[in-house]
Amino acid sequence: MPVPWFLLSLALGRSPMVLSLEKLMGPQDTARCSPGLSCHLWDGDVLCLPGSIVSAPGPVLVPTRLQTELVLRCHQETDCDLCVRVAIHLAVHGHWKEPKDEAKFGRAADPELEEPVNAFLQAQVVLSFQAYPTARCVLLEVQVPAALVQPGQSVGSVVFDCFEAALGAEVRLWSYTQPRYQKELNLTQQLPDCKGLEVRDSIQSCWALPWLSVSADGDDVHLVLDVSEEQHFGLSLYWNQIQGPTKPWWHKNLTGPRNITLNHTDLFPCLCIQVWPLEPDSVRTSICPFTEDPRAHRNLWRAARLRLLPPRGWQLNAPCSLLAEATLCWQAPGGGPCQSLVPPLSWANVTVNKTLELPLLNAHPNLCVQVSSWEKLQLQQCLWADSLGALKDDMLLVETRGPQDNRSLCALEPSGCTPLLSRASTRAARLGEELLQDLQSGQCLQLWEDDLRALWACPMDKYVHQRWALVWLACLLLASVLFLLFLFKKDHVKGWLRLLKEDLRAGAAARARAALLLYSAEDSGFERLVGALASALFPLRVAVDLWSRRELSAQGPLAWFHAQRRQTLQEGGVVVLLFSPGAVALCREWLQDGASASAPHGPHDAFAASLSCVLPDFLQGRAPGRYLGAYFDGLLHSEAVPALFRSVPVFSLPSQLPDFLGTLQGPGAPRPGRLGQRAKQVSRALQPALDQVPSLGKDGLTALEGPGPTSSLGPESLP
């Protein structure tokens, strides 16, 4: 709701937003039909006995839709009651049976005649009405000429006038036939009160209602009741909760006129106002004016509390119902985002003020519950922090079970779920064999499982201690060696230390730079080649979709690319476009067809998904300094790379690896001699994967070690 607020009038006067109702004079109920039908209303009410569903002997009339309209039933011009008019739409159900049904409906023996000419199809339609404290059932007989009968088509409607009901009441309607050939129709409707109808001069119970308006003055909200000085009325403020009964907040009997002030911190979306004259059987008028107010929604989330109840319960406490999503996540020590897990908890419309169960086998301090609204994190609470202690440096293993007892394991890390025994440069990959042995020996705690998946928490304390012990031992050994070298060859040691200092600076610069590697998935051999390249680029921090399949499946390729690209560029990194025949074909499709180009080839093809963002950077001149390109010798010619992408350096691998590594590492790149050694190491790491790709193989390493200078297809270096 915008501020300043518009006047919310509950007055009963004439307004363009109120509804003018038709008046029916007299107390008699009536029924009328649409043209072509004949109908009759039975005198008095009947018993509401739907009975069980039976098979139709042939074509029968059945109700298909209920429609209501509000009217006034008046005894005098100013003495009326609210009444509900009901229209029942009818259709034909079933088909003619031959030859028995033909004789029943008077059909001629001639087989060319398809339906009776002088017969009628008849139905008894029951209409049931409930509105506390009233309950009624009426019976309508309807006939339709057999000539108009078309199975499955509507034949018209019958209108009943009418069921009396109280203002603001909830009414329920049912309709079915006797006998019943299908499930009964039902309709529930909330009737308006005096404020929404033009009935002030017709319904006597609405005459004495106070005039209530809501307005704003800065941070204060004013409830203005404009009534005479002698009129007594009741005023109630309450929380109208969808889940559970209403919760009174403030109630008082007053004498008008009154001006009541509320602070903006008291506003909630479910805060409603009810006012009524202090007279017997008076009509109460209610309004909930803050359902769309942004300040009320902010107050609601400030008042909400997420509680975790041992052993495995959780509860969201709030004054009003919330449209929210709750998820289970894993919080690693040292900060960082809490990573979502399976199993998911309840989605939209989380039940507030009700204890819910967490689907866990065992508790762990790193397990947390997050509550989000409209993709924004609102609340987070880790499991029983008081009883379980601080966060632990444990590794969470995700087990996926397949057919024939096949299973795969990956470790949840900030970069994604890393497969055990992989060649990735992460802690989980380096300790993959040890973690697998811990799991098999029962040292890991099972947190959750179902038929297809399981979660395990494996302690990492012993590996941390071992690592630090090795580090200290290596440091002592290195210090001893350096001291001895310094004693025996003082001058040489000074020069060596100077070179070592340069290398350390270059290494720090390399580690500080991130790279996002984009490629088009050609086949499994090419993917292994890409994975080998990404692993060989260590200590650069390389992001590639091969190591982030879980995030790709959860977020989608386009969302994953946007997040990785933003993080890489914010950290001063570079996006590497790895060209292949498939990648070049995709680029040409996008350059020719634009947004209408073909969709990504697979659920994990980040290259195809990223073109909608990459191409505008090149077309608008934003690519230099952010992107560089590469392709493999023997798999693609330099002329095949689209000219648009040559505005950035494009390198042939592995023949131009030194230039590629120097440009990739930026201004802090090592000296040329060290770059050459580094390039040979990378080339040797690539060679096993190169041998498995057609048109590649030994030529890659030979090209790197052969004579002759190397050059890139683009500028000499990135700014």
Task: Break the fold down into its secondary structure elements and pairings.
Blueprint: E1 8-9, E2 22-25, E3 30-33, E4 38-41, E5 60-76, E6 79-93, H1 100-104, E7 120-131, E8 134-145, E9 154-164, E10 170-177, E11 185-190, E12 211-217, E13 220-226, E14 232-239, E15 247-255, E16 258-263, E17 271-277, E18 285-287, H2 294-303, E19 305-309, E20 313-317, E21 325-330, E22 339-340, E23 356-357, E24 367-373, E25 376-382, H3 385-388, E26 394-401, E27 407-413, E28 416-419, H4 427-430, H5 432-440, E29 445-449, E30 453-459, H6 461-488, H7 490-512, E31 514-519, H8 524-536, E32 541-543, H9 549-555, H10 557-570, E33 574-579, H11 581-593, H12 606-619, E34 627-632, E35 650-653, H13 657-665, H14 672-691, H15 698-705
Helix pairs in contact: 6-7, 8-14, 9-10, 10-12, 11-12, 13-14, 14-15
What descriptive keywords fit this protein?
disordered N terminus, elongated, 5-stranded antiparallel β-sheet, single chain, receptor, membrane, glycoprotein, Interleukin-17 receptor C
Task: Give the terminus-to-terminus CA distance.
Answer: 49 Å
Unreliable sequence segments? 1-18, 100-115, 595-600, 697-719
Q: How many strands, what sense, and barrel or not for the largest sheet?
A: 5 strands, mixed
Shape: elongated
Beta strand %: 25-35%
Number of DSSP-assigned strands: 35
Strand order of the largest sheet: 2-5-6-9-3
Q: Number of DSSP helices?
A: 15
Structural class: alpha+beta
- Any idea what the radius of gyration is? 39 Å
Mean pLDDT: 77
* Helical amount: 25-40%
